[in-house]
Design goal:
Layout (H helix, E strand, L loop, with lengths): L5 H15 L12 H29 L4 H8 L3 H8 L6
Amino acid sequence: MRHIGEETEHAMARFEQLADGLDRDVAKVLVTDDLRDVTEAAKAVPDDEARLRESVELTGTHGRSWNQIAVALGVSPQAARQRSADKVRT
């Protein structure tokens, strides 16, 4: 994962190894689907953040104001600027 820190990526890979190696007859944990869901969601976050950043930047190049971007994000204009201004060129 290009956006995930090395330590986090290592921890997620280690969890996958441990979960795959569980002996279902011996293990106390019978189902790890919920933990796998957490791992998958964590993997998706950086890509989703990059997609959002690119979308906000593209919207800004189309002449949209921070007020309009804030409405689309569901936050205040100040929050939209604070969240994105240092990451995008609008």
